[in-house]
Design brief:
This protein is α+β, with helices and mostly antiparallel strands. The chain has helices at about 10-30, 30-35, 40-45, 50-65, and strands at about 65-75, 80-90, 90-105, 110-115. It has one domain (about 5-115): Nuclear Transport Factor 2, Chain: A (Roll). Strands 1-2-3-4 form a four-stranded antiparallel sheet.
Length: about 120
C-alpha cells in the first residue's frame, strides 16, 4: 500500500512519470486501452473511446504530437498528488502545460485528472 506521506518527491516522480508517458503515448496513438490503462473508474467513465478519438483528432490537427515534457512542480494533497510539466508539441513552438492528479490505489497509482492546455 502506498503511503503518500512517506515518499519523497523523487520517489513519486519515478512512479508517476512512466504512467504519464504511457498516457501520452496512448493519446498520440489514439489507443483508448493504453491511454486509460491507469485511470480511476471515474476517469474511465469520462474518457470514452469516442471522446478520446475526438480530442486527439482536434489537438493533433492543431498542435501535432506530444514531444518533450519537462517537470515543473509537484503539489502534495492529503490523498493525491498533482504534477505539472512543461509540454512541447511537434507542430507548435508554443509551450503547453501538462498536468495530472495521481491517487494511490493499493500498491499502484491511478490518474484521476489529466489535461494539456
Amino acid at each position: 500500500m502506498i503511503e503518500l506521506h512517506t515518499l519523497s518527491d523523487s520517489e513519486i516522480l519515478a512512479a508517476v512519470g512512466p504512467i504519464m508517458d504511457n498516457l501520452m503515448q496512448g493519446s498520440t496513438e489514439i489507443d483508448h486501452a493504453r491511454h486509460t490503462r491507469d485511470f480511476t473508474d471515474r476517469m474511465k467513465c469520462i474518457v470514452t473511446p469516442e471522446r478520446l478519438a475526438a480530442m486527439c483528432a482536434d489537438y493533433q490537427s492543431r498542435i501535432g504530437y506530444f514531444r518533450r515534457r519537462e517537470f515543473v512542480a509537484l503539489f502534495r494533497r492529503q490523498a493525491s498528488v498533482a504534477v505539472v510539466w512543461k509540454q512541447s508539441c511537434s507542430r507548435s513552438a508554443d509551450e503547453f502545460v501538462a498536468e495530472a492528479v495521481f491517487v494511490p490505489h493499493g500498491d499502484r497509482w491511478l490518474v484521476d485528472h489529466a489535461m494539456v492546455f
